[in-house]
Design goal:
Strand 10, helix 8 and strand 11 form a beta-alpha-beta unit. Helix 7 runs parallel beside helix 8. The strands form two sheets. The chain has a seven-stranded mixed sheet with strand order 9-8-10-11-7-12-13, sandwiched between helices. It has a six-stranded antiparallel sheet with strand order 3-2-1-6-5-4. The protein is α/β, with parallel strands linked by helices. It is globular and about 55 Å long. The protein has two domains: 109 residues, Beta-Lactamase (2-Layer Sandwich); 162 residues, P-loop containing nucleotide triphosphate hydrolases (Rossmann fold, 3-Layer(aba) Sandwich). The protein is 28% helix and 31% strand.
Length: 283
C-alpha cells in the first residue's frame, strides 16, 4: 500500500499502516473512512472533510481531470501499479448518455495483490484441451478474478508453457510491473476490448488472449468475432453461479456459440486463503 499513501493525507495513512493488508479502501466526502478486509467492512476512526476529499481526488487525478475523463464516465480512475479507483456521484446526461460526473462523492480503491501458483486448474484444462477453447473465470466482485488472471498470465508465459499472450487491459489494472520484463506478454493498455482483440490477432500473433471483466454485448461480439481466428480467450465475469452466469445476455451468446470450454467459479475468504474452484467443462 506504499504507492497508495502518496495520494492520501497522513491521518488516513497512519490508520492503514495498522493493517498487514486490506482488500479495499472506501473514502466518502464528509464521512468516515472504511476498509474491507477478508470480506468484512470496517469503519476507521478517521473522517474525510469535503476539502480533504477534493485534495485526495486531485492527487488521484494528478491534478488533471481531463486526462481521466473517459475513464471517469465509465466509473473509475486508473493508477499505476494495477490500482483501480471506483467513483460515483452526480451524472450529467446528454442524449441518453453520461457525458460527465459533476460531483464525485465516493471513492472505492481496490488493492491489487500478487498471488503465485494458484492457477493450476486453469492451466491444466488448457493443456488437456490443446488450447482449442478458452476459459471464463467468474465470481462475485472482490473475490480475486483479476489477481487470478495475473497469475495465469505470468504462469503461461514461462516454463513449461512459453505461450505468447496478448493482454487486453482496458481498465489499466491487469498489466503489472513484474510483467514488463516478460518477452511473451504483449499489453494493450487502455484499448477498448474489441479494438485490442482485433489488433492483437492482426499484428501480434498471440497464442492466447487474456482480458478482464466481460459481460456486455459489445464484449461478447468482440470475442465472437475472434472465434474464427482459433486463438482461445481467457476472461473473467461477475457471477455467483454457473447457472445464473449463462443467463446473462452477453454471456449467454458466448455459451451458445461454445466460445469457452471451461467455466471456472472461484471463492476464497481472504488474500492469504487458497482459491476454491468449481469447474464446469462444456462440450
Amino acid at each position: 500500500m506504499k504507492l497508495l499513501s502518496r495520494y492520501l493525507p497522513d491521518n488516513i495513512t497512519r490508520e492503514l499502516e495498522k493493517f498487514a493488508y486490506i482488500n479495499e479502501l472506501r473514502i466518502k466526502r464528509d464521512a468516515f473512512v472504511c476498509v474491507k478486509k477478508d470480506g468484512v467492512n470496517r469503519i476507521l476512526p478517521v473522517s474525510t472533510s469535503s476539502d480533504e476529499f477534493d485534495m485526495i481526488l486531485s492527487n488521484l487525478l494528478h491534478r488533471s481531470y481531463h486526462s481521466q475523463h473517459s475513464n471517469i464516465i465509465e466509473g473509475f480512475i486508473s493508477l499505476d501499479g494495477g490500482y483501480r479507483v471506483g467513483v460515483c456521484g452526480k451524472a450529467v446526461i446528454k442524449e441518453g448518455r453520461i457525458t460527465n460526473i459533476s460531483d464525485i462523492i465516493s471513492l472505492s480503491v481496490r488493492i491489487p495483490h500478487s498471488v503465485k501458483g494458484v492457477c493450476l486448474p486453469v492451466c491444466e484444462y488448457l493443456e488437456r484441451s490443446c488450447y482449442l477453447r478458452g476459459v471464463l473465470i467468474y465470481s462475485p466482485p472482490g473475490v480475486g478474478k483479476t489477481t487470478l488472471l495475473r497469475d495465469i498470465a505470468m504462469t503461461l508465459c514461462e516454463r513449461p508453457y512459453f505461450k505468447r499472450l496478448a493482454l487486453i487491459d482496458s481498465r489499466r489494472e491487469l498489466y503489472t510491473k513484474e510483467m514488463q520484463g516478460q518477452p511473451l506478454i504483449d499489453p494493450y493498455i487502455g484499448y477498448p476490448k474489441a479494438k485490442g482483440i482485433e489488433l492483437a490477432i492482426r499484428t501480434m500473433s498471440p497464442d492466447i488472449i487474456i482480458c478482464d471483466e466481460i459481460g456486455n454485448e459489445d464484449d461478447s461480439e468482440a470475442i465472437l468475432n475472434n472465434q474464427s481466428s482459433g486463438v482461445p480467450v481467457i476472461a473473467s465475469a461477475h457471477g455467483d453461479s454457473f447457472e445464473r452466469l449463462i443467463q446473462r445476455k452477453g454471456i449467454a451468446k458466448l455459451y451458445k456459440n461454445a466460445v469457452f470450454g471451461c467455466y471456472a467459479g472461484i471463492t476464497r475468504r481472504g488474500v492469504n486463503e487458497k482459491y476454491r474452484y468449481e469447474i464446469t467443462e462444456v462440450s
